[in-house]
Design brief:
Blueprint lengths: L1 H4 L4 H12 L10 H14 L4 H17 L10 H9 L5 H20 L26 H10 L11 H18 L3 H5 L6 E2 L2 E6 L5 E5 L2 H8 L14 H18 L5 H14 L4 H8 L4 H24 L4
Antiparallel strand pairs: 1-2, 2-3
Helix pairs in contact: 3-4, 4-6, 7-11, 8-10, 8-12, 12-14, 13-14
């Protein structure tokens, strides 16, 4: 019996027998293509976010196509490593894909299709952390000044283009949103004195106070669409990034959208916010990610506190 079920663990054997009785698993094992389709359907049913689903669908589809016709039980750790070598991608991208493949096989184990996760033994590649590069106050002033100097081929749209550029810069500075999230920012996320950054898995919205300068910039925008900038597509994201690079060139500053996100986080930490708060506002899934990028700025803030307390004399 142990040999036929390919396990000596009673709990694993029970799950496998249940899967066979449900008709979900033949003695030869479930096809990886069928398992992949069922995994995606399960994610959709559990309400996984659309951006995460998009990544899951793409990764799982590529993986299943590579092993098309094979059962999940026949795929080994070496096979997955061979699949990796066919992917001409950056280490960071492979880390994300490997995590998804691990989840796929973990789901197969929960359903009784497998008794071990062949992807679990593969190590994630190290990823070089990009240096945190917050903008200085002088650089921010130069970029804001450049908003009034940016030009367009259509003179009739010049005022609108400049208002839009200023609004973009202020949104990035006061929200810490990624440029892709800014491209998808909707007017219904702005209400009263707050801007909703995102909604957590438990349904609780994370909001940031709507700064007076930002509010003034946004109220000058014509609301002829559901989105604040463009139409929420990848093209909008590219256009917004191009605007930031143009402003940087005018201002003589190395301007990159992520530098505004770094500036947002560093300003919070050096003015007293704790790193857990910054994690929530940035949308990092783990506080360890926030610490990896910004912990040294917490130490800088502590030095400021120590210096202030050291000046006390009673």
């Amino acid at each position: 019996m142990r040999r036929s079920l390919d396990t000596a663990i009673v709990a694993d054997a029970t799950r496998k027998v249940d899967a066979i009785e449900r008709g979900e698993l033949a003695t030869g094992g479930v096809l990886i293509r069928s398992a992949a389709d069922a995994f995606i359907a399960s994610c959709e049913g559990r309400g996984v976010g659309e951006s995460t689903l998009k990544h899951y669908r793409r990764t799982v589809s590529l993986f299943a196509s590579h092993f098309d016709g094979r059962s999940a039980t026949t795929i080994t750790t070496a096979d997955i490593d061979d699949f990796r070598q066919t992917r001409s991608i950056a280490p960071g991208t492979w880390r994300k894909e490997l995590e998804t493949i691990r989840q796929l096989f973990a789901w197969c184990m929960d359903r009784g299709y497998l008794t071990a996760n062949p992807a679990a033994k593969l190590r994630k590649p190290p990823v070089k952390i990009l240096a945190t590069a917050p903008l200085t106050h002088d650089e921010i002033s130069a970029i804001l000044k450049a908003c009034d100097q940016i030009f367009t081929d259509d003179p009739g749209k010049l005022e609108w283009v400049r208002r839009r550029a200023r609004g973009l810069v202020l949104v990035l500075l006061y929200t810490g949103l990624r440029i892709g999230d800014v491209a998808r920012l909707r007017w219904d996320a702005i209400s009263g004195e707050h801007l909703t950054l995102r909604t957590l898995k438990n349904g609780v919205p994370i909001k940031v106070a709507l700064n007076a300068h930002l509010n003034k910039a946004l109220t000058s925008f014509p609301r002829n669409d559901a989105f604040v900038f463009g139409n929420g597509t990848e093209t909008t994201k590219k256009n917004l990034s191009r605007t930031i690079y143009r402003l940087g060139k005018i201002a003589g500053v190395r301007a990159h959208p992520h530098r505004f996100r770094d500036t947002f986080a560093v300003e919070l930490l050096t003015t007293g916010a704790d790193i857990r708060t910054v994690q929530l506002l940035l949308g990092h899934t783990s506080v360890r990610t926030t610490e990896r990028h910004y912990a040294h700025f917490v130490a800088a803030h502590q030095a400021i506190l120590d210096s202030a307390a050291g000046r006390l004399k009673f």
